[in-house]
Task: structure prediction
Amino acid sequence: MNRLLLAILPLIFSCKSQEKIDLATLNLNEPIEKISSFDDVLLIGVETVEYPFSLLLEVEKSKKYSFDGIDLEGQRIIFQIESEKLKTDSITRLGGGHIDLKQAKNINELNEALKNYDAESKIYGVRIELKTPELQANILKKLEAKYGKGTKNPNTDNGLYWNIKAQNKFVFYAPDYRRLIILNNTDLSKSCYWDIMNGLIDFGGCDNEKYMADLVKNATRPEDVKEKPTIKIDKNWNINGLIVGKTTEEDFLKSATNKRFERIAEIDGTTAKTNEIYYQNNYHDFYFYFAVSNSNPDNQKENFINGFAINDFRKVQISFENGLKPGLKFDEVLKLLEKLKIDYHPVDFANYIEIKTSPYKVTLNFNDNMLLSGMFVK
Result:
């Protein structure tokens, strides 16, 4: 009998260890350690396209998740975590595709990230990748069986949503963007919701202006920024004598421009390879990007500046050798570029001008009033 028991026990534990977390049953207030494992690749940080106003915990290539009996192996699973620090204008300050995700290999690294972002230790939402039409169709059947027919999302071709008041949940089915998003709305607006993949949804009585102001309530007003860095852009679009494609990371660190910058290494979660290094000064919306050495990304003599961004001219003291000035009107900038015989390309119905200067491109950005407000070189 004892031998039989010993033979069965490994099977029991093996089955138990393979049990999947059913994302459809979560309350979405669970502690992070309950819904994730360091056996998987866990990336924590900011991804402004996915959602800029909360901390994201991305689980890559996990076999641990399902949705109401549907296996989600191979799908990206992203959990949302409340973060006061991210209630800023980061989506405009850092650009539409800003990514700052770092791998958390253990509880200490996870806790350090939570502390840095002034974040909760629990989740409030989950975002599920839906790669295939088949998976999308199967998920939709489960949603309709569970919640009934959804409400058509007016902002997308095929999107639906559900407001499950009894469970304090919003459910957003966004097949156009290959996403299912479920949120615990206990601490969210009950009348408005916005993200890039769903647009703005009015659940009834939505005050869009008030809602968006609350999302960025911790943004720094430009007039309150102190110790603005001095920036000089020469006629070849170089910045403070730092030359794109030539100046090394070591040179940058030795320069007078290097103040209040934090070094970030963008790591490929699958290969652990360093894709890019950048230095960020979030307070002044000022950034430098570096192409990394193929042989040794830590060799600062072999990493070269391949771009920079100044997202809000009001937060720096900037001057241009070619006569450009912050606050110039769109048409005034076009006339100046023509006078200087600079080859430019204004983008129709957009608020920026592209200037091709081999081997990089200069983008001049304009605010809502079409006044020159920022630039990006890469």
User: Anything to note?
Assistant: The longest strand covers residues 51-60. The chain is about 20% helix and 35% strand.
